[in-house]
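User: Could you check the structure of this?
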Amino acid sequence: MQFPKLPEYANQRVVCVILAKNEAKTIDEVVKRATEFVHEVVVMDGHSTDETAALARSAGATVYPDPGKGKESAIRQSLYVVDTDVVVFMDADGSPDPADIAKPVLPLVSDGADLCVGSRFTGGSEEFSVTVGHLIRTIGNISMNIAINKRWRVELTDTLNGFRGVRRHAVLAVGLREIRIPSNKKCL
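Assistant: Sure, the predicted structure tokens are below.
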């Protein structure tokens, strides 16, 4: 099947899934810009109480409600509602630039990778700030990167970044499932 709009994707269909909850301020622009770089944009709406879903639809996205069990369940559900070879996940807040969508897609369609994760640590990102919360999250992210890299002998730089491309069939083959801890239980 030929996709004349995006020939650099080696005739593979690419869908951008945007995870959103109460992102009315940014969703319109993010959807419009993402449509320039993929075959379809899907928004998984986290039961927004603002106009996020309506704005996403008017910008050209297909909108689905997420299951309401957190970001992981929205990601998992999106894999069942899209019909595509490659999925690019991004947040709706505008932090990843839709113009960078090809960066995680090209290794999937040309090098045979199954997963490509964006990195805020390798340059080009404007996501960093100097708040205490960001510092703590950054230290945690770096610690997680070290542990994963050591355990699986890989060289990941930003395992917690939500901007990532995946081969849909590979992720479905993993059999992802979430583990939820009831709110009345404590995690040890």
